Amino acid sequence: MERSNTTINRVEAEISLPLGNIQVVRKAWDAPIDIVATGPMHYVELSLLPVPKIAQGCFPDDWGPHRFEPIGEVFLLPAGHKVRARSSCLHQNSVVCRFEPDAVATWLDADMHWTDDRLLGSLDIVNANIRNLLFRIGEEIRNPAFGTETMVEMMAGQLAVELSRYLTGIDPNKAMGGLASWRLKLIDERLTDGEPPSLGELAGLCNLSVRHLTRAFRISRGRSIGAYMAEQRVDRAKRLLISGMSVKAVAYSVGFTAPSNFAAAFQRATGETPRQYRQRTSRVTVHTGESKPH
After folding, report:
1. pLDDT given for residue 65 in this prediction
2. At residue 236, what are phi and psi to the nearest 5 degrees?
3. Predicted confidence band at 159 (pLDDT cuts at 50, 70, 90)?
4. Quick check: 199 and 214 in contact, CB under 8 A?
5. Residue 84 confidence (pLDDT) above 50
6. Residue-by-residue DSSP string for the chain
7. pLDDT at residue 153, as a whole number
């Protein structure tokens, strides 16, 4: 692995599984990132707060040295593929999964070729199922409890399956039973941007009728758009609560008109109030090499 600048990794939590290794890590760089690497394992990352700055990636052996494409909040770097990444970001908190290729070959590599479209899609995975799994895995290893290893191993296997579905779905010649992958990506992008949209807005975005949209979305995601949107709001709220934002600010940020409505919805979804959730997650002390007040 080659690196053109210095990276400092501080592992906050870690677990090793038969599939590979998972970490919650704080990363810092001494200069704007310009990294060239070839890894022996599949590398999957979810960038947590702060929101990453503009980043770009290139697969020079596949694309040549001059083509760079955006790197998103969730990305996958396939094993054995040289990648060059560059960004002005100087620090980042992340959930990182490294999968042994042989261990996940049944799901991730079965009869799949790393086409140009799949390499491009791997740099910016706008898929809420995958993002949710990575976030939940990170929460679980930061807050270990009875059965954590079993729970994380199950979610890691599910993550590999979801990644396989996402990547094999990137095929312009393949008919899909539900929504086309580009429409699903449009919806996921819109759900992360501002207040929750109406069905009419999403239908217009996809150039479909509301009836067609709702039927096809259920086929693709296995749930209604309303249930899916509710999951995304709770997931985003958890991340903002962990970041230290006030409950009131989180409520308005995720589209609620009143903090009391947000608190009730959050408790129905998680079994905890927003304050209880934040207190529970903040109580966990993970050794980072720094002294902490008693």
Report:
1. 87
2. -65, -40
3. very high
4. yes
5. yes
6. -EESS-EEEEEEEEEEETTEEEEEEEEEESSSEEEEE--SSEEEEEE-SSPP--EEEE-HHHH-TT--EE--SEEEE-TT--EEEEES--EEEEEEEEE-TTTTIIIIITT----HHHHHHHHS---HHHHHHHHHHHHHHHS--TTHHHHHHHHHHHHHHHHHHHHHT--TT---SSS-HHHHHHHHHHHTSSSPPPHHHHHHHHTS-HHHHHHHHHHHHSS-HHHHHHHHHHHHHHHHHHHT--HHHHHHHTT-SSHHHHHHHHHHHHSS-HHHHHHHHHH-----SS----
7. 93
Half-sphere exposure of 134 (CA within 13 A, CB side): 30
Segment among 70-74, 99-103, 220-224 with least mean pLDDT: 220-224
This prediction has a pTM of 0.63
Per-residue 3-state assignment (H helix, E strand, C coil) for 238-281: HHHHHHCCCHHHHHHHCCCCCHHHHHHHHHHHHCCCHHHHHHHH
Q: Which residue would you say has higher pLDDT here, 185 or 246?
A: 246
Residue 25: CB atoms within 10 A of its CB come to: 19
pLDDT at position 122 is: 92
Tokens (6 digits) for 86: 């560059």
Query: Under a CB-based contact definition with an 8 Å cutoff, are residues 57 and 122 in contact?
Result: no
Distance CA 128, CA 156 (A): 15
Q: Please give the Cα distance from 26 to 8 (Å, whole number).
A: 8
215 has pLDDT over 70:
yes
